[in-house]
Every structure is written in C-alpha cells, then in structure tokens.
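dumping this here before i forget
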Amino acid sequence: MAMLEYNEIRQRKHIIFEGEPYEVLDSHVFRKQQRKPVNQTKLKNMISGRVVEHAFHQSDKAVEAEIETKQVKYLYSNPKNNEIWFCYENKPGERFSLAEEIIGPALKFLKENSIVSAMIFDDRIIGIKLPIKVELRVTEAPPTIKGNTAQGGNKQVTLETGANVNAPLFINAGDIITVNTETGEYTDRVSK
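structure:
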C-alpha cells in the first residue's frame, strides 16, 4: 500500500481515512501567515456517501486505498425490492444485485445492457462508475414555443431511462443526446 504525503492527497485520489475508503473531492494546500502548510480537503466516504472536511498537516500521511475495478453489465432494476441487477461482462450466469444506495444518482443514466465499472474494496462492491458521457434517446420533449431565445432557451426533456434533463429548444423526441453523468447536464446532440 502506498503512503501519500499531505500534499499528494489531491482530487480523485482514494485514501483510507478512519478505516474506510474515501474519495478526495477537493483539496487546497495553503499556508496561514507564519504557520506550516495545510492541505484542506473535502472527502466522500465511498461506502456511506457521507462527506467530511479534514485538514491534513505537513506531518500527516494517508494510505492510498486500493480500489479494484471490474467491468459489469447492468441488467435491470427491481424498485419494489430496492435491487439493481448486474452480471459480470463475459459471465451472464453470474448475476448479483446491489442496493440502490450503492449506485446513487448514476442509476438514472443507466440503460439496460450498459457496461459500467464496479469499484471493489476488500472483495466487495462499494460503487458503480459510469462513463463521464453517455448517449441516450429523448422519449418526451415539449414542443418548441417561439419567444425570447436570445439567451439560448432551454426545456426539460425525458430520456429513455426516465431521467429529466434541461436541453436546448431544438431537441425533439427521438433525438439522441449526450449527457454528462457527473453533472447531469446536456452536452450535445448526436443525431436526429
């Protein structure tokens, strides 16, 4: 296991903090007047989702978490039992379910048979990582209404997964658009 110095604890790194894996969401190294430098961080618990702030001082070190990833295929969800079903990419017989809390808001951008990365810590799946951008078909889009579009008007459209996103007025039902899964925002239109 690699040890990280206080200034190596940066965004998108995974560390062991208080015995559990955390993802570093934000870090800022600064010096207060005549004092020693401090790395002020915002950490997200990868199991519970809890976000904490912690200041790492010059003498502090952290163990880098060993997060393994495996490709898995999303099969379907059973909201009645709070289960989301997956199988390993090349082993359709090895099915397993995860609780909705583990997947989090990424679930609204998952479509059936999508290949995603399962993050594994201590031989158990602690989360799912989607590609940053996914292509989804628009199933419902309100008609475009003429009006003040000087500032680039938006409307809310519904995607094939049931998610709602704001998109430009020229997007219609049937269009395929690209959505950023981290922000949940429309990025561009792929095809009509």
